[in-house]
Design brief:
Layout: H1 9-12, E1 60-63, H2 76-87, E2 112-113, H3 114-126, E3 135-139, E4 142-145, H4 148-156, E5 177-179, E6 191-194, E7 198-205, E8 212-217, E9 226-231, H5 232-237, E10 241-245, E11 248-249, E12 255-260, E13 265-269, E14 275-280, E15 287-291, E16 300-305, E17 310-313, E18 322-325, E19 332-336, E20 345-350, E21 355-358, E22 367-370, E23 377-378, E24 392-395, E25 400-403, E26 414-417, E27 424-428, E28 437-442, E29 447-451, E30 458-463, E31 470-474
Helix pairs in contact: 3-4
């Protein structure tokens, strides 16, 4: 729940139980067929489900004349000389007013979360922004040059104006960052930079051995903004260095809370086990959900209605922003960032055949994978620390979590036994390292326990809630 909504929580709690914010879900519709790739899900109101807010109206290119011969790799000295020449009348005048972004969670040059960095980068990939050193792209992210260093400048939300040719350069980007000791220290949203030639945005490792890096980039003329992979050996042999933006916000420890079914109220806990905030959302028998539905910095509420296989997701903890029907009655609802795009979308697990169906747009299936045994409980989390939410199961018969680092194969990359019979499995980044770990909620004592990475050691414990509550976890801020 974001800070700017907490003052409204008490009034929100007075909403009528029959509705969800200002938009109530419709009556139960016909049973849905199994989701299939390419099949459109319908909302309860009969229209299409809303797409995530990061899917903006398309931007556009504008030509400009660079002040230096190579705006991609110009040094600070070359940029300063060009500015001085213009000021002395030896070149065209350079307006100094900064071009402000149209809309963003962060301020230009201010603190920014890794989720927002990745979402901004992904928006150019979604729009197929073409490479160019002499045009800038205008959209909700602001105005940024369409080359590799302009792309990273845009993703980091650095100041942009005609004075710096609409973005920093491969030489000047390190002035806004700290060089890391090793490629192994890289985290999603960091930069890999060769100051003389090219820079890319790191999004995660493709393998556990850290030999292949997943990246986003504007590569060269004739290509569009894209995802790609670089081998570690290529990066090393070609002089690429790892950097972290100085104003990036690293992961915060996951918060815990409870959902009280009898009241349809979400209660979030502070770090000391007190009530940080609460609000009412949904109706009786709904299943509580938490996620950053529009790439915001904090998680907000949602529900799944089992009787109609409908999701209702809120970005303000009050009104319905996404209303989508997905899967079949009897499925188990899931939410996650399945491809590391910077925002949370929906999915389901079908117990009858142990199959996960995961959507990147709250409508169609992006991943279908079968994993687990009958009676397993589905678990999803950022198990690899790459920013992607991937699948897993919890087996109540042996209190063991079996977790995969991919959504495309039922690999068991982590197996952790934790908890007691009767515990409810949960997940969270209990120590703020950027990687989800397993945990349990003990209903008879209202106790939360979080484990270390691939460990049965307890590194987090808190008592919160009442008997009959359901556990929730998320980033409350």
């Amino acid at each position: 729940m974001s800070r700017n909504t907490r003052l409204a929580l008490r009034s929100v709690a007075l909403l009528a139980a029959v509705g969800i914010g200002s938009a109530a879900l419709g009556a139960a519709g016909p049973a849905q067929a199994a989701p299939t790739a390419g099949a459109q899900s319908q909302s309860a109101g009969g229209g299409s489900a809303h797409a995530p807010a990061t899917h903006q109206a398309p931007g556009h290119s504008t030509d400009f004349v660079p002040t230096v011969a190579n705006p991609t790799t110009a040094t600070a000295e070359e940029l300063a000389a060009a500015t001085a020449a213009a000021a002395a009348g030896k070149g065209s005048a350079l307006p100094q007013a900064q071009d402000q972004a149209l809309a963003a969670a962060s301020a230009a040059g201010g603190r920014i979360t890794r989720n927002e960095v990745l979402a901004r980068a992904q928006s150019w990939i979604d729009q197929n922004v073409p490479y160019s050193q002499t045009t800038y792209w205008s959209d909700a992210n602001g105005k940024y040059r369409q080359d590799c260093s302009g792309f990273v400048s845009m993703a980091w939300h650095l100041p942009s104006s005609s004075a710096n040719n609409y973005g920093e350069t491969t030489w000047t980007l390190p002035n806004f960052a700290t060089k890391l000791g090793s490629y192994d220290d890289l985290r999603p949203g960091d930069m890999i930079d060769n100051i003389s030639s090219h820079t890319v945005l790191f999004t995660g490792w493709a393998d556990g051995g850290h030999t292949v890096a997943n990246i986003m980039e504007e590569a060269h003329p004739g290509t569009n903004a894209r995802t790609a992979t670089y081998t570690r050996s290529y990066l090393s042999s070609n002089g690429f260095q790892p950097y972290r933006y100085n104003n990036i916000v690293d992961a915060q420890p996951t918060g815990v809370g409870v959902y009280r079914p009898g009241e349809q109220v979400f209660y979030e806990a502070n770090r000391s086990g007190g009530v940080l905030g609460y609000n009412r959302f949904g109706v009786a028998n709904d299943v509580p959900l938490m996620g950053h539905w529009n790439a915001g910095s904090f998680d907000t509420v949602g529900i799944y209605r089992p009787s109609t296989a409908e999701f209702a997701l809120s970005t303000d903890n009050a009104t319905v922003w996404v209303n989508a029907r997905f899967g079949n009655v009897g499925d188990v609802p899931l939410v996650g960032d399945w491809d590391g795009r910077g925002y949370t979308t929906i999915g389901v697990y079908r117990p009858s055949d142990q199959t996960f169906y995961l959507s990147n747009d709250n409508a169609t299936v992006a991943h279908t994978v079968r994993m687990g045994n009958p009676d397993d409980i589905p678990m999803v989390g950022n198990w690899s620390g790459t920013g992607k939410t991937t699948i897993g199961v919890y087996r109540p018969s042996d209190q063991t979590f079996y977790l995969s680092n991919t959504n495309d194969a039922p690999n068991v990359d982590h197996a952790v036994r934790f908890g007691n019979p009767g515990d409810v499995p949960i997940k969270g980044d209990w120590n703020g390292t950027g990687t989800d770990k397993v945990g349990v909620y003990r209903p008879d004592t209202s106790d939360f326990y979080g484990a270390g990475q691939d460990s049965s050691a307890v590194i987090f414990a808190m008592r919160f809630g009442n008997p009959g509550d359901q556990p929730i976890t998320g980033n409350w801020g």
